[in-house]
Write a structure and sequence with these properties.
mainly alpha, 218 residues, 66% helix, 2 domains
Length: 218
């Protein structure tokens, strides 16, 4: 099963790049979670918000039960900012007046950051660019028609530069199907590890450490 997962991971160049990002991003996490659980977390965090696996933490929790509680600040921040971007990307001029308050609330992530963080200041600048929610619906509609795309792009660029998240991977339907197969195979492997009675601790550790990683080039 592990070899099959490795074969799936190198089937598509975009998936290979995606898994490389998952590894790199996860390695910067300042947490005590199981490394494979962190990789599973970021694997689903970066998927399109409309996709069924997006932000699915089932496998992360299976690998490390601590994921079912409060997330560490850095992971919670990435989750919150990913949600903020998803809200912005889903907005249209017609519904902007109703959702501008939600966008403002989504940007309130200061409690997850040190006071002297440059990201706090940059997010505040973006927040200040948003129009007053008390303005007429027509005015707000025109504002989003005129500025919505550029404002969202600023947010996306900010997340990519400062948090290494928010990338538009432009997955095709075929690639999303491959991602689903890859996820299912990893889930089945973890299930097998959890129910098997004849696996040594060393083998279990070895397999868990390989999850959501590209195969070694050695």
């Amino acid at each position: 099963m592990q070899q099959k997962i490795y074969q799936l991971s190198v089937t598509d160049e975009t998936l290979k790049c995606f898994l490389h990002w998952v590894e790199q991003k996860s390695s910067t996490a300042n947490s005590t979670y199981h490394p494979a659980a962190v990789r599973a977390f970021y694997f689903t965090l970066a998927l399109p918000s409309h996709y069924s696996l997006s932000r699915n933490q089932t496998l992360a929790i299976s690998l490390d039960s601590h994921f079912s509680g409060n997330l560490s600040n850095d992971l919670a921040l990435d989750l919150a900012l990913t949600h903020t971007l998803a809200v912005a990307l889903a907005l249209t001029p017609e519904i902007f007046a109703k959702r501008v308050s939600a966008l403002n609330v989504a940007l309130d992530v200061n409690y997850l950051l040190p006071e002297d963080s440059s990201l706090v200041q940059l997010l505040q600048i973006l927040k200040q660019e948003l129009p007053d929610k008390t303005q007429e619906r027509r005015v707000l509609k025109i504002w989003w028609q005129t500025h919505g795309q550029s404002w969202t792009q600023k947010l996306q660029d900010l997340l990519a530069t400062h948090c290494q998240i928010g990338y538009n991977w432009r997955f095709t339907e075929e690639q999303l199907q491959l991602i689903q197969q890859y996820w299912d195979a990893n889930s089945l492997l973890v299930y097998g590890l959890n129910v098997a009675s004849n696996i040594t601790p060393q083998l279990r550790t070895s397999i868990e450490q390989s999850l959501f990683l590209l195969p070694s080039q050695d």
